[in-house]
Design brief:
Rossmann fold, 25% strand, NAD, K_uptake_TrkA, ion transport, transport
């Protein structure tokens, strides 16, 4: 694909890295020559220095030949205008815009071209703050989880959990786990990471303390499975403290205050006063999130969950580690600098999340050719989970009518389950694939995604590979 990315910030850079590896023709536009030079030094891409909503700059970037425009600058207005220009000048097929302002997001009719042909011509609207908020809510709904991803409109979920000493299935082989779960609790372990190395989850693999276990299950069964992997009795997070009253922190507090006891801390007096007027039950505190005396005064030892969501990675790390030391059961911190992540997850912060990685994952399936309806990066890009629809017939497809055990799959994948209409069928060798099945799979080598796409595509439609 020929893809133009506007903006060489963290989101634009993450996308460029991902797309360049997969042999797309990528061009990045940015005003900062230094950022562009850094990208060009390590990636096989084109760069153009200039303003992202300048028609001449867009033409210089090759807009006429582009299959996709991703407007990911820090300025909403620039992103929106660039998409409008792309439609007017060359009718670019797919236009994706990053939009952060709540004023735009509160008026979806501005972007709904199905209802209004005069609406702003954006195919996909991305709000990083909303994506992060929803991501955190999923982690709150499943205490102890490291990552939660929905597939097939929520019929099945992929959950990552760390195995703890004392968990009933720790020390058990995967094929023995079923007998330790209640009747009717079905699942499929699709990957295990052990000290940053992938362990292929065959029946003879034994779960060890510290393993990061990825499993697929239907939502109502997930708490039962998680409980077996943990040594402690998991309970919902009733008392929650949020560090940072920006868009993410405020919107989370608004969502959580109805059913949780919420405190939110922000250092800015104006911001603290503004959000206190808009929140109904949450307590708003003006202060420094890394002030030990303040945290103790606010009974930090009674807090079940501490969310570090300021605009500063360093403040989030320090406040998160301090909160854990002062007795908080669980800490989730927003950390975009990937060089910090491995270090801090070994030092008391339970989950480090990246807005850039979450945003990249939200966009990933739009980059995939064929009928990939969802793709999500896992472990900061080291692996990928995909949902692909099977099209064709037994005559045109290499997989329809065959059992999972008969198909020559790429070496790095594990088939998790098939969603057939409203039924979830967990993978086994004798399960036959049918047309229109939704196949959920785990890919521990994302570079093999193109092989998956080709395998799922009917023969008559492969001319574009």
């Amino acid at each position: 694909m020929n893809i133009i990315i506007l903006g060489a910030g963290q989101v634009g850079t993450s996308l460029a890295e991902l797309l360049a590896i997969e042999n797309n023709d990528v061009t990045v536009v940015d005003l900062d020559r230094t950022n562009l030079q850094r990208l060009q030094d390590r990636l096989d891409i084109r760069t153009v220095n200039g303003h992202a909503s300048n028609p001449d700059v867009l033409n210089q970037a090759g807009l006429e030949e582009a299959d996709m425009l991703i407007a990911a600058t820090h300025q909403d207005d620039t992103n929106i205008v660039a998409c409008q220009l792309a439609q007017i000048m060359h009718k670019t097929p797919t236009k994706i815009a990053r939009v952060r302002s709540q004023s735009y997001l509160n008026h979806p009719e501005l972007f709904d071209r199905q209802q209004n042909t005069d609406a702003i011509p954006i195919n996909v609207l991305i709000s990083p703050e909303t994506l992060v908020k929803n991501y955190i809510l999923q982690l709150i709904n499943y205490p102890g989880s490291l990552q939660v991803v929905d597939f097939s409109e929520g019929k099945v979920r992929l959950v990552a959990i760390r195995a703890h000493s004392g968990g009933m299935i720790v020390g058990k082989k995967i094929r023995e786990i079923k007998q330790h779960l209640p009747d009717g609790v079905h699942h499929r372990i699709v990957a295990i990471y052990r000290r940053d190395e992938i362990v292929i989850p065959t029946g003879n693999v034994t779960i060890q303390v510290g393993d990061e276990v990825f499993f697929l299950a239907e939502p109502f069964n997930i708490p039962k499975i998680v409980q077996e992997l943990r040594r402690d009795k998991l309970r919902p997070s009733r008392n929650i403290m949020i560090a940072g009253g920006g868009n993410i922190g405020f919107n989370l507090a608004k969502e959580l205050e109805k059913e949780h006891q919420v405190k939110i801390i922000d250092h800015n007096m104006t911001q603290a006063r503004k959000i206190s007027e808009q929140l109904e039950q949450a307590i708003v505190i003006r202060g420094d999130v890394s002030d030990k005396s303040l945290l103790i005064e606010e009974n930090i030892d009674e807090i079940d969950l501490f969310l570090a969501l300021t605009n500063s990675d360093e403040a989030n790390i320090i406040s998160g580690m301090l909160a854990k030391k002062l007795g908080v059961r669980r800490v989730i911190a927003l950390v975009n600098n990937q060089s910090y992540v491995d270090l801090i997850q070994l030092n008391s912060i339970d989950v480090a999340i990246s807005a850039d990685q979450i945003t990249t994952s939200r966009l990933l399936h739009y980059m995939r050719q064929g009928d990939t309806v969802k793709a999500f990066t896992l472990r900061r890009g080291a692996a990928e989970a995909m949902e692909v629809i099977v099209h064709g017939s037994e005559n045109s497809s290499e997989i329809i009518g065959k059992t999972i055990g008969e198909i020559q799959w790429p070496t790095s994948i594990t088939i998790g389950c098939i969603v057939r209409e409203n039924e979830v069928l967990f993978s086994h060798r004798d399960l036959t694939i049918e047309a229109e099945d939704h196949v959920i799979l785990f890919l521990n080598d994302p570079s093999q995604a193109a092989e998956i796409t080709e395998l799922f595509t009917p023969k008559e439609k492969r001319s574009w590979f």
